[in-house]
Amino acid sequence: MNSQEQFDRQASHYNSEWNQWSESSLEWLLNHSEARITDRLLDVATGTGFTALAFAPRVAEVVGLDVSNGMLDQARSRATDSGTQNTSWQQAPAEKLPFADASFDLVTCRVAPHHFVDIRAFVSEALRVLRSGGRLLVADTSVPDGLPHLDEWQNRVEWLRDRSHVRNYSPGEWSTMLTAVGFAVEQIERCDEAKPIRLQDWMAKSGCTGDAAEQVEQMFRDAPHDARREFSIEQLADGDVAFKWMRVVLAARKP
Ligand SMILES: C[S@@+](CC[C@H](N)C(=O)[O-])C[C@H]1O[C@@H](n2cnc3c(N)ncnc32)[C@H](O)[C@@H]1O
User: Fold this and answer.
1) Which of 22, 42, 44, 71 to mutate to test the pocket of ligand 1 (most atoms within 8 A of CB)?
2) What fold is seen in the domain 3-144+166-194+245-253?
3) How far apart are CA 136 and CA 175, in angstroms?
4) Which of 27, 126, 134, 253 has CA atoms 20 to 30 A from the CA of 242?
5) Mean pLDDT in each 10-residue stretch from start to end of the chain (255 residues)?
6) Cβ of residue 246 lying under 6 Å from some atom of ligand 1
7) 87 C-alpha to ligand 1 centroid (Å)
8) d(Cα 13, Cα 22) in Å, to the nearest integer?
């Protein structure tokens, strides 16, 4: 299943409960954006607009872009309900941004790059649409550098749970990709969430059932010792499992 199909299906129940899983990373982006009230901001893979709407009061204009019209409809309603007037929403892929060169001061992208079929195309496109001196801010699930078995375990679990998952990149991979296209990486950090995720809830939200759900549960039961430590995996008394995914947050500037 591709992202468009997966997120059209999830749009009606993609609400603040999901956002709780990534609230700290949103806080980090807001605190490190250096956003100015005159800025034009593009939020790539905006979903139902959590990041776009959080930035809207701090900038002149926000454009939210996503492949899923279902998610964009929710973003539009959310903007109307909150009385936000400086947002617009556009359907397009992150890999081919329908905007002129140097047309934005800021590009944000949160909890989404792991779905992109061509991450390098996204990074190049973000560079192209930013003005010189503009900044790219990213927050996403991640894997540790230099631990290939953890990387493989984590990305396999994610893919079994949601077939639109492509890959969680390590901080080192992000640095390499950004530097390769010409960004100057200014900050890159690990920013894990305060609130643990419960496995059954996590699978239910993406519609993971049957064989796939059993495989995910088995992988958690058999999780390597260092995966348990790295992702705070904990067996709960009620039979469910709690964990915290690793997050990477970063700011990179177009020279
Ligand atoms: C977890 S949601 C995004 C959440 C949102 N950024 C936020 O901060 O709350 C992931 C989004 O990525 C979108 N997406 C996945 N692949 C995409 C692509 N190649 N181009 C644009 N959007 C994409 C999905 O449609 C979905 O809305």
Assistant:
1) 71
2) Rossmann fold (3.40.50)
3) 12
4) 27
5) 69 63 87 97 97 98 97 96 97 98 98 97 98 98 96 97 96 98 97 88 92 96 95 95 95 98
6) no
7) 17
8) 16
